[in-house]
Every structure is written in structure tokens, then in C-alpha cells.
Amino acid sequence: MASSQELPKNYDFAEVEERWRSIWRDEDHFFDKNSKKPQFVIDTPPPYPTGNFHIGNALNWCYIDFFARYKRMKGFNVMFPQGWDCHGLPTEVKVEELNHITKNDVSREEFRRMCRELTEKNIGLMRITLRKMAFSTDWSNEYVTMQPKYYGKTQLSFLRMLASGYIYQSEHPVNYCTRCETAIAFAEVSYEDRETQLNYFDFDGVEIATTRPELLAACVAIAVHPEDKRYRELKGRTMKVPLFCHDVPVVLDEAVDPAFGSGAVMICTFGDKQDVHWWKQHNLALRKAIDRQGKMTDIAGKYKGLNTTECRAAILADMKAQDILKRQENLAQRVGTCWRCKTPIEILSERQWFVKIKPKEIADAAHQITWFPEHMLLRMENWVEQMEWDWCISRQRIFATPIPVWFCKKCGEMTVPEDKDLPVDPTQVSPKHPCKKCGSMEFAGEVDVLDTWMDSSISVLNVTGWDGSGTPPFFPAQIRPQGHDIIRTWAFYTILRSVALTGQKPWNEILVNGMVLGEDGFKMSKSRGNIIVPEEILVKYGADALRQWGAMGAATGSDIMFNWNDVVAASRFQTKMWNITKFALIQLEKEGFAPDAEITALADRWLLVRLSDTVEEVSAALEAYQFDVALKAIREFAWEVLADNYIELVKGRLYKNDASRKGACLALHTAFDALCRLLAPFTPYFAEECYSHLSPGKSVHKQPWVAFTYDDDAARMEGNLLVQVVAEVRKYKHDAGLALNAPLGKVTIYAPHTVNDEGDTGRTLNADVHWRTDAAKLDRVITDIDFNRSVVGPTFRKQAQAFMAAITALSPEQLANPPATIMLDGCETAVPENSFTPKYSYMEEGAQVDVITVGDVILTITKM
Ligand SMILES: [Zn+2]
Ligand SMILES: [Zn+2]
Fold first, then answer.
1. Closest ligand to 180 CA?
2. With helix as H, strand as E and coil as C, how does 422-472 read?
3. How far is CA 729 from CA 647, 720, 741, in A?
4. Where does the pLDDT of residue 11 fall: very low under 50, low under 70, confident under 90, or very high at 90 and above?
5. Contact 450, 354 (CB under 8 A)
6. Cα of 404 from ligand 2 centre, angstroms
7. Which end of the chain has fewer CB atoms at under 10 Å, N or C?
8. What is the pLDDT of residue 1?
9. Is residue 76 predicted with pLDDT exceeding 90?
């Protein structure tokens, strides 16, 4: 044991955290592929390398590190990999901003190089925060999705799914952002409420209402409800589109709402999802009026080249000029917009690549996974149920995994690379063999790239060792931790792809964390100015305090409001624990402790049984990922049981030098050792520092999880009572204006059982304490009388003294039931109500005592 004299008075988190960070070795957290221990593989979320590891990431990673460390102590072979999900639009946009260019100003290769460089730099910055936070990352299993080693696997998974029919290409309407010039998936569409205008105009004699007159050129039919009597005669007719003059058929469809507008609607390719539905249903023509840049196409005639807003204004003006615009109304509308730039999305029909969605397959797998908290499964179910379109995975961007296919320039046949040649960029290299169909050697590489989710949704396959054949060696992973905001994307896509590629669920469990809100209760955002960055907390209070906030802030899965007070409270707990540590070490150092010492004193037994209860509660909470419950139980034990009660009770005994001291030392050592281990997953630096003084040369993180059990119901009950008795007597002292250590005289405790307190109670209260099991024999006597002078004075005036003397002369029985009258100066005089109250005291064996009751326990105090 290190000399407690060396311990600094105050806990200096900055010094301690930096010191341990330099001592700990990465190898201690490596997953051992040859281990016989049960595996615990974590499918860690790969964050987007923005350069800032934000507070939401921090919360997510705290949860992961709590259970990663716990599982290691429980004897599991843990893999806590760290990935980086690099590809995507945000980095492209950042590169354009930083270099004052657009992606078209430099070659594709040069643009990619710039993106890679920025990403490398950002990853470097984020790694530093991860280390400061003391996350027990397995750096030997780090992966970076933009590196060939990783995206080669993305390409391999693409080819496997292409071969098995899960992936196909087709011309199909997709959500498209004309600003980003790329297709996007449904999960990437955000919705905004906007105000628009509903325009009523004359369409070849029928009134039509539309919010998008600019799509008139793309009109392919008019639809009415089959039962709508107003339009009976339209059946089988064609109608002429105003301004454009092409003919379109009238179709009957039950989905038309006769009550909306005039009851006749125009179908355009494509105004919304309903248009797509009708277009398929009625096998209508395709008219593309808007191109990928959001400009009007040839079929828009004189409006060609205008953007949609300009075109709308021009068409409305022309409608007015032709006197076919009848009226306009304001209309509130939910508009789908691009997740990245908020531009309203268009639905464009394009040749794209798709992944088939098989809802039942995904739902079945989702049901085989244990969800924490359970209700998050519902969100997945709801999302799966509303799936209508397949997943569009092609993007018309640059910084992404290339789609590994070529097309024969002569016959159009598709060619794919061999596994061993992956990764490939089909725009840079050619196939090694001529076209199978026509023998030509001229190919065009696919220029579209893959959706970033195609990279990240194989994270679990990557970390479990997938090589393209069958089930990976460490598959499925044990757990996927992630935020509830990406259930529809990352969780959904991962399940889809695991089932498609292995036929199995990706993980046994999924742990969903909430979002971190600002101190004002709102989502953190630059515009609100409520963003808290982890680095700021690390500098002010250290990693352990931040980690405690993460554990205690809210139940797992709930959103958590950031609160500096919680961080301060966490830091105070460390101060308190540090004081306990110093006290414990000084005591244990004096004579050491004997591991075979006998534990007989009630306080010692009580401490151990409460420790046993705590270990059980904390372990159960950690098994269920209830970090707030676990840390709360640890704090309560440390603070209330150990510091406030036990140590106060046994201080006196520890200063003695006999056998009873040995019991206290052993109990103290046991509790302190266990506390360090219980705290290890939550406050790794602090627990290590404390433990290093208790067991020099050993790391708490290499110790097994606490397995301590102590079965002693009597000790729990009687000890709780003992603690209450001491608290009550201390309160009594306080109320009597006595110092807590002032001598008190004799205290007799009438309890149901004999208690061996080894003199702890007496020393703690500085009193002569006697425990007795017989019933207290107390006499209740009247020892004084309180006269109510405001009644006695006015009533008796000069006779007041005589009245009080007469009352005082009454017998105790008469005082308890006062007579209605007394004789005063020979006259029978009425005794006024409320003129006096007898004061009672208790007598025990002839001495006056004060009495306190604690439940059914009676305490008598004979003052000195
Ligand atoms: Zn966009
Ligand atoms: Zn060919």
C-alpha cells in the first residue's frame, strides 16, 4: 500500500487523467481472435469525420464504454472497434467551401484527394477527444470507410447482392435534389411546413386545382373518381392541356377525392408520390419536364431553361393573360426537402440502382433482436410497414464508393470485376476481359457512386470478419449501440444487408440512446447558441465528471438535457470519494488488514450486507444497460452507507488497537476495493487512481467484476436500525444545543434483539450506551406545571398567586383530570379552561430521562 502521506489533499483530475492516459496501453483493449473467452463484439457507430466529436457522440460512446469495460471485467473477449464513415456530401461541400471551388473545377481524382485529406485531418482531431474521454477503444480494429481495404468490401457486398438479385438498375422515379444534383433515399427526405398557393384554372372545360402549374408540360392524364356524376361524360375522352396543347386521357380512380378542389386532378410525372402510383397503375406516358439541374426541359417549349420558380410565375402569368386562371387560395403544405440543403425535392425518373426491400424479412430479423429500450422496436416496425419504394443506392456525386460495373460500349452488356481485383474505380480502369456478349474491348465505367449508407450498413460484417463468403467468423455481433435518430437508416439498412448477405440478424441486441438537448431544453444548434462541446467540459471538470453526467442524465433511450449542475455534482462526488479514500488508506496502512479477520460487529456486518445489496443492484442494472440506476446505487452506497454512516460509526474503533479493529479494517478494505471496481466502468481514471493506492502495481481495469455476496438479513435490519438510532440521538444533541462530540451520559436502547455493536454506538455518541431486549419500565410523572398567564392574570388578579399554589397542591391524578372548581380563600371558584398544562417527564429507575422512539425501539437518555 502506498503511503497515504503521499496522497494530495485535493483530487487533481487534470494531473491524474493525463498521467493514466500516458500509462495505459492500447493493447489492453485489443480483441483476441484466439481467445477462449466468450466474445462480445460491439458494432460501434462510425461517426462522420467532421473534426468535432460532439456531445451526442460523447453520450453514445459513454454508454458503449460503460458496458465494454463492464463486459471485460465479466470475462468477455470484447471488441470495441472505432470506425469512420467518411464518404458523402457534407465533406464535398466543405471542400468546396474551404478551397473556393466547385466539384467541377478540378478532376474527379483531384477532388477525391482533397476530400480524403480533409477527412484524415478531421479523424486525427476526433481521435484525440476519444482518448481524452478514456474510451477503451480497440484501435487494432479501427476502420476507415474511404480506405480501399474497406470500400473494397462495400463493392464486394454490392456484387454479391447484384448476383443474388437484391440489387438491380432501373429507370424509376426517385427523390432527387436538384441543388446537390443527386438522387436521395426516402430516409434522407426531411419535411417542412410551407405555405403555397392552390391555383384553380380551366383545363379544357374542366376546373383543375394545382399547387404546381410549372408541371403542366409534364401532365399525362386527368383523373376523376368513377362515382363522380359531374364527370360522367368525360369517361373515355381525351383532353387538351392548356398552353401546351398535347392530348391526355381521362382516367377513373377511386383514390381521387371528389371533395378536393373540383374533384378532377391532373396527373404529372411527377408532382408527388401519388402521381407515381397513378402513373404505374394506369400505365401512363412519361413526360420529363424538369432536368437534373432543376431546369425546364425541351418539352416545356418556350419555358425551356427556366428554373421551376421562374417557370411557375411565367405559366401563371400566361394563364392570366389567356383568362383561364380562375382563382388562387393559400394552402398550408408539408414539403419534402433535401436533408442536406433543404431544397424541395423533385421526383425525377432516372436510371438508378436499387436495393430490393423485403419488408417481412427485415421485420422478422428485427424481432429476433433484443431492443433496449423495448419500445424502440416499434419505430422500426412502423418504418418497415410504410416502405413503398425500393432503396435507391446510386448517387451522382464523387466522394463515395464507386459502383464497380462497366457497360459495353457496343452492345450495352454489363461487366463486373473479379473479387480479387477489388476495389476498382470503373472510371479509371477497364475490365481485364473483353465483352462476353460481343467481344468488344470498349467499355464505359459506371459514373454513379454508392449511397454512404451502403458503406456503413456493412460495419457489422466488416468487424466480424466478412470476406464475401457465408457467415463471418464472429457474426452476429453481440450489440449495436446507436441513436434513435438513425433507426430508419443505419439500423434498417444494416438489418436488410445482413439478412441479404448472411441470411441472419446482424446482432443479438441493440441499445438505443437518446439525443442531447441544450440547457434550454432545445435541440443544440448554432442559431440557438446552446451548443456544448465535450472539450469544454473536459477542460473544466475532466472526463470522469463528463462520463458520470452521461450515465446519470437520463434513463437509457430518453433524450437528455445537458446540465452543468450535473457535471459539478459528479465532480463533488469525486471529491467526497477522494476523502473516503484518504481516510481508508490511513486506517488500513496503520496495521494493514487481516483477510481472515472475524467480522462480528453489527456495523461491519451491516456494511458488508449493504455492499452485497449494492453489487447485486449495480450488476443487474448493467446487464439491462440501465446506467443511471447503476451509478445512482454506487453513489448512494459510497456517500450514505460508507461515508456518512459506517465511517462515522467505526471511527472510534479504528483508533483502538484490538481485535475489533481488525474486523472494521477488513470490512473497510472489502468495501473500498469493491467500490473501485464498481466505479471502474464509469470513472476509469478516478477508479484507477484510487485502486493504485490500495493495490500498488495493479490496474483496476484488469480485475474481475465484483462477485461479493454477503447473506445476513439480521445485519441489514438491525444495522439500518442502528444507523437510525445514531441519527436520532445526534439530532437530539443538535436540538439541545450540544456539540456532536459532547459527552451525553447514559443512553439505553430497548431493541427487540441483542446487538453486538462492539461499542461503536457509545463511541460515536460519546455516551454510555446500553442495549437491552426487555421492555422499558418508564414512569410518566408530572414534574412541572405550565400556567397560562394570559388566562390566570386577568381572571384572578390579586388571587393569582393563591390560585397557582392551589393548583400546584393538587395530586397528580387531579392534575391529569382537573376538577371543575377549587376552594380559593374559602370560596368555591371555577377553574378556567386552558389556565394550565401539566408537564410530564419520564422516570426510569428513579432517574429522570428523555425518551426518543425509533419505530418500535425506545431510547432513554439520562443526562449527566
Ligand atoms: Zn440538396
Ligand atoms: Zn458487348
1. 1
2. CCCCCCCCCCCCCCCCCCCCCEEECCCEECHHHHHCCHHHHHCCCCCCCCC
3. 17, 14, 11
4. very high
5. no
6. 17
7. C
8. 47
9. yes
Structure-derived torsion over alpha carbons of residues 692, 695, 696, 701, reported in degrees to the nearest 10: -50
Residue 6 has pLDDT above 80, yes or no: no
Nearest to 164 by CA among 405, 448, 499, 408: 499
Q: Tell me how far the alpha carbon of residue 407 lies from the centroid of ligand 2, in angstroms.
A: 8
Which ligand lies nearest the alpha carbon of 182? 1
Strand (E) or helix (H) holding 569: helix 564-591
Distance of CA 617 to the CA centre of its chain: 21
Please choose, from the candidates 107, 142, 69, the residue with its C-alpha nearest in 3D space to the C-alpha of residue 699. Answer: 69
Kindly state the average pLDDT of the residues 114-128.
97
The pairing of strands 39-41 and 77-79 is parallel
Higher pLDDT pick, 102 / 147:
147
What gap in Å lies between CA 178 and CA 128, rounded to an integer? 38
Where in 753-820 does DSSP place strands (E)? Answer: 768-772, 779-787
Concatenate the DSSP letters of all residues of 650-670 into one string.
Answer: HHHHHHS-SHHHHHHHHHHHH
Structural element, H or E, at residue 224: strand 219-224
Beta strands in 438-591 (DSSP E): 443-445, 449-450, 477-483, 507-513, 516-517, 560-561
Cβ-proximal residues to 242 (8 Å cutoff; 6+ apart), any chain = 201, 202, 203, 204, 216, 319, 322, 324
Say which DSSP state 7 is in. S
Distant-in-sequence, close-in-space partners of 150: CB < 8 Å, separation ≥ 6: 143, 144, 455, 462
Residue with cell 426537402: 337
Q: How far is the CA of 49 from the centre of ligand 1 (A)?
A: 20
| Nearest residue to 400 via CA among 92, 722, 34, 6 | 92
pLDDT tens-place string over residues 382-439: 999 988 889 999 999 899 999 999 999 999 999 999 999 999 999 999 999 999 999 9
pLDDT in tens, 250-279: 999 999 999 888 899 999 999 998 999 999
Ligand nearest to the CA of 442: 2
179 Cα to the center of ligand 1, angstroms: 5
Instruction: Read off the pLDDT of each residue in 171-191 and give the average, rounded to a whole number.
Output: 88
pLDDT in tens, 537-581: 999 999 999 999 999 988 888 999 999 999 999 999 999 999 999
| Strand duo 83-84 + 143-144: pairing | parallel
CA–CA distance, 525 with 520 (Å, rounded to integer):
11
| Å from CA of 408 to ligand 2 middle | 5
C-alpha cell at 24: 495505459
Quick one: angle between helices 543-552 and 55-73, nearest 10? 90
